[in-house]
Every structure is written in structure tokens, then in C-alpha cells.
Amino acid sequence: MATIAFFFLLRPGEYTGDALTNTPFALRDLQLFIGDRRLNTFTAPIADLHATTAASLTFTTQKSGVRGEVVMHGRSGSPHCCPTHAIVRRALHLRLHNAPPETPLGTYYSSDPAGAPPRRHPVLSSDITNLLRTSTAALGPSLGLLPKDIQARSLRAGGAMALLCAKVDTDIIRLLGRWQSDVMLRYLHLQAQPVMSKFASRMLVGGNYTLHPSQDVPALPL
Q1: Could you tell me the pTM of the whole model?
Q2: Could you tell me if residue 76 is inside a domain?
Q3: Which residues make beta-bridge pairs with 72?
Q4: Total domain count for the chain?
Q5: Would you say residue 45 has pLDDT above 90?
């Protein structure tokens, strides 16, 4: 779910919790494709699901999106950090447990050693925050981050920052993130180290200029 949230720029309420307290994406909201061919998530052969080349989420009950709006991603090229692979893994897990279409995408089932039916659990925002902070404790110092700097909602900003550093047009970032203003993008511009790191040298070069004289400057006599 962390991978899905990062690539789709999701708010915590869209990918964690249950439908009683949030408006998370459900199993029925995802679509899987091999090229132009759409797969039936519930009946397609497992081999076809693993061959998925693109996955999308459709906004149905989410408060921050236009109903019926679709956001799609293809494969990232990474076997571990890929939105398409992550969604396929969710679909396979939920299908294995015969989850109904309205099941929140961030749901997992745990086996009971006593032989009782598997128990259903929602992925909580605190679960994501704890996971991210554990990772930040190990990797953060080299990146200038502390665990307290990170929480579940950081994935949304982190995904937008990655797009910005990849030089994706800011209007497209706003569309993907469903931002109604440019406040978040102004923050991202100032925080993105790859974007800002060469500004000083570029300003030094760009600051070497002359101005055209105005109308008030006296003309030299011939």
C-alpha cells in the first residue's frame, strides 16, 4: 500500500483504514491491463495477472477526486517498487480470500493457527507510519531525514517531489495529485534538493547582464 500511495499520490484516507472511517479505494476500483486488453480482476488466469503491463484506479467515493476519474500507471521497471506489481499483489491476495468487490484495497487476511477462518484486518495509517519510520531510522541519516520527519501522508508529498525532480510539468503533477491550488507545488520547489542545488551557480551566470537604457537617459551628442 505504501508503494501504491507513493505512485498514485494518495492521501492516507484513500489507501488506509476501513470504509467506516475513510473513503479508501476498493477492489472494484482497480483495473488491470495487458497492453490494450483489460483483464477481469476476479476471473482472469493468475498468469495473466502477473503479466499485467498497466494498472489504474477509478475514483468512486474518494472525497478528493472527481467521480469516474481514472489514474493509470504502467510498470516502473523495478520488481520491488512498481505500482502495477503492487496492485497485482493486492488483487491476488484479496482474490485468494474471496474478498467481495467492495473490500478496501488496503485489507489483509491473517491465518489463525487454531484452524479458524482467516481474520480480516485493515491497513492503518499508523501501520504505514511505523513502517516508514523504521526504514528512515536505517536510511534517513544519509538523506538528511529523521524518523519524526516522516508519516503516512509523506508518501503523497514524496511522490510529487519525485515527479518534480524528474522534470514532469507542474500542471500534470497538480492533475495527478488533485491539488486545487499551487501551494503544495511552491513548497516542493523549495524543498527539492536536485531542483534547487544548481540555482546559485545559474543565478551567478545569469546575473551578468546589462540593461537597455530608458527613455530618460540623455543621448550622447553626435
Answers
A1: 0.82
A2: yes
A3: 56
A4: 1
A5: yes
Residue 73 per-residue DSSP state: E
Which residues on adjacent β-strands are paired with residue 121? Answer: 108
Strands (E), the chain: 30-34, 37-39, 54-58, 70-74, 107-110, 119-122
Residue 31 contacts residue 56 (beta carbons within 8 Å) = yes
Containing structural domain, residue 116:
2-123
Taking Cα atoms as reference points, which of 112, 85, 106, 114 lies closest to residue 13? 106
- Reading the block at residue 141, the C-alpha cell is 541519516
Q: Is residue 16 part of a domain?
A: yes
pLDDT tens digits, 69-93: 889 999 999 988 999 999 999 999 9
What DSSP line would sit under 177-197, residue for residue? HT-SSSHHHHHHHHH-HHHHT
C-beta pairs of 145-153 under 8 Å, 24+ apart in sequence = 152/5, 152/12, 152/16, 152/125, 152/126, 152/128, 153/11, 153/12
- The single-letter DSSP state of residue 35 is T
Q: Is residue 60 within a helix (H) or strand (E), and if so which, with residue range?
A: none
